[in-house]
């Protein structure tokens, strides 16, 4: 049987119906909203194909309202979370990947029905660390011209840490964000960690 890999940022409702008809396996990786907001802000700053993000304050508001490309973070993560019960989806948390990459690689391996040796698992873990990917020209997009992705503004692979939001959020923004987060995730058992 032929295997294919497709990487996308599509929300669940925009995934082609053939995904569900063919009963494909999907690995969905979700990152906590606060760090996602920071990462997305810098991505908007360096990616010349996206609208200028404006000030941090403006981008913060746009993120909370979902007025960005790919829509609302809240709708995105909740939509995929609800689909887990109906389809073959492994929901992986970025924070878990950072905390224990080997555990998460093994989880993905089992979900995909693969039986890999410990040596291969270790090599996968080594090649998928943030540091290794940051140095890998296939993963870091450094071959793209600055007219497309200006990495003099911000590298594509910037920090990759959990908790960088603390360097960007004001106390007031954190309170506003927490209030909106609580409201938007109310009734869901979906939980994210914002620090390790």
TrEMBL record:
<keyword id="KW-0808">Transferase</keyword>
<keyword id="KW-0963">Cytoplasm</keyword>
<protein>
    <recommendedName>
        <fullName>Sulfotransferase</fullName>
        <ecNumber>2.8.2.-</ecNumber>
    </recommendedName>
</protein>
<dbReference type="Pfam" id="PF00685">
    <property type="entry name" value="Sulfotransfer_1"/>
</dbReference>
<comment type="similarity">
    <text>Belongs to the sulfotransferase 1 family.</text>
</comment>
<dbReference type="InterPro" id="IPR000863">
    <property type="entry name" value="Sulfotransferase_dom"/>
</dbReference>
<dbReference type="GO" id="GO:0008146">
    <property type="term" value="F:sulfotransferase activity"/>
</dbReference>
<feature type="domain" description="Sulfotransferase">
    <location>
        <begin position="3"/>
        <end position="188"/>
    </location>
</feature>
<dbReference type="InterPro" id="IPR027417">
    <property type="entry name" value="P-loop_NTPase"/>
</dbReference>
<dbReference type="GO" id="GO:0005737">
    <property type="term" value="C:cytoplasm"/>
</dbReference>
